[in-house]
Design brief:
heterodimer; A: alpha+beta; Rossmann fold; OB fold (Dihydrolipoamide Acetyltransferase, E2P); 2 domains; 6-stranded mixed beta sheet; 6-stranded antiparallel beta sheet; 8 helices; elongated; B: about 290 residues; mainly alpha; MetI-like fold
Amino acid sequence: MAELALKNAIKRYGATQVVHGVDLQVDDGDFCVFVGPSGCGKSTLLRMIAGLEETSDGRMTIGGRDVTHADPAKRGVAMVFQTYALYPHMTVRENMSFGLKIGGTEKSEIKRKVDAAAQILKLDDYMDRKPKALSGGQRQRVAIGRAIVRQPDVFLFDEPLSNLDAELRVEMRVEIAKLHKQLGATMIYVTHDQVEAMTMADKIVVLRDGRIEQAGVPVKLYEDPDNLFVAGFIGSPRMNFFAGTVARVEAGIAHVTLPRLGGVEVPVSVSDLPAAGQAVKLGLRPEHFEPGGAIQTELAIDVIENLGGVSYAYSSAEGDEHPVIVELRGKTRPGESGALSVAFDPSSVLLFDSETGQRIR
Amino acid sequence: MRARYSLYLFTVPALLVIGLFFVHPIILTFDMSLTNFAGIGEAKDVGWRNYERIFGRDRYLREIWLTLWYTVIVVSALTVTGLFFAAMLHRLPLIRNFSRAALYTPAMMSFVVVGYVWQFLYSPLNGGINVALRDLGLGAWEQNWLGDPAIALYSVAFTQIWMFTGFTCAIFLAGFAGIPEEIGEAGRLEGATSWQRFRYLELPLLGPSITVSVMLTTIGTLKTFELPFILTKGGPDGATRLLSIDIIDNLFGQYKFGFASALSIVMLVIVLIVAFIQNKVLRDREQA
């Protein structure tokens, strides 16, 4: 077990820089999730930590040891690959023993460690099978088992659940979370699925184009995002954004008019006040539309999805990048499209600078 | 039911080609091997006499052993060198394509060209190899490469190995390309050295490529004729007289069509038996 620290970590392929000076601190025992859209550099960053990609510049320490240019095997990390990367010609037991065997660990010791890992992962009945005779979930467990027996300082997971079906994914998600509690190990987990990130992480790191957009505990990222990207990426369904203009600023309150919502004026309390006339974006999560809210307006609804406990109403208009989504709860939900009266409380909106995308707090 | 018949209908062209150009000539050859046909005149039926002669005389049994021994040398060396180069090039992606093409070039050359080039290199007085040895101060190692019965077979084998290493290397490189990169990466993370990754991860996963390579080179080498014919014509003192050389000699040298046919049938049976056993053994190994 150990903490991991990156200082200005940079990755270049020739002249192209793909990871731009990442600073990150993952505490001992943390479950840290790298999340971001495809091509954001999250897997590259994980592979740099694993040592499978050379770190072009910067410094990396695991448990205080400088491992920036250390051999992958000497970093004290173990990795679970998206494709599992099990050795197809070996049985489950051989797969899990391989690393210890070539490391010269004693046979009885190998057996003890492998059996212990098998028990944790409920693999006892499959030890003599080859990977091809296992289901996706079982293979995934073997891959995790192979990591566990090495007792690494840091576990690395590279989108480990994306090859599983939806049901199994939820199941394995819970199992990995349990495993983390049980082992208390530092884990770094890469995913593009923000639900996985929200449910599993102690700390989420949102990446875009090789830069950290924001890092922090899931709830903080959800409730208090630093910029438009994080606000839009975290949360499902995604946050609604409305383009607006600051009409006037009075007594520490910016009054923003929103053409998309029938020109309503929303008073937003921020300390770093924007200038009157400034273009801003106002963020509002679907669940923050509440019938009793102070701001009342109307939306033309095209589609309503009823998921049972909750419904989502979608309103599209010309020029919208994404439809406006309204979450509806309670017994008297409209079932059909048409004009819908909505309301929300000004305290639940977030304000962003249109130009820089940064949050105005 | 009609669908099922039409299914077989589609195999008719292939069956016709196989029947006409493979099975029929084999039957004709077998038929001829039971005669004393000399190319012209009447073919008199002699029963199994040609076969009795083949298995009754040391000379032919020795040729069969020589052919098998030559095959063992060439196939083992081709497999090892092909694997060696493929494993190296797999780890050197920058020069992989160029080196693969370069290694494969000898296999694209005509046997005649290769034969004459190596005949010059092996030539005892001013041949390239002996001159090179002399210039390097290794004059004591000079040999009469093709003239010494003790080493002629190995000299011929070396030429064949030189010629086809690129071929087996290409097969193994294709095999390496089929191994997911993550397997090697997982091995690296677990602390496996380059050699350990080759020995414990890549080699077992190359099973199917080894089967293909060994089968193809074995069949090709058992039938080989061109290089020994051009380099030594079976000499010196029969040291490189492989079965194929004797077939040609009987057929076009002595016009013993009947006997040459019997030798050909024997060779065919040997190739079939060896290929069958190899296929069985190698496939079983792959499954294990």
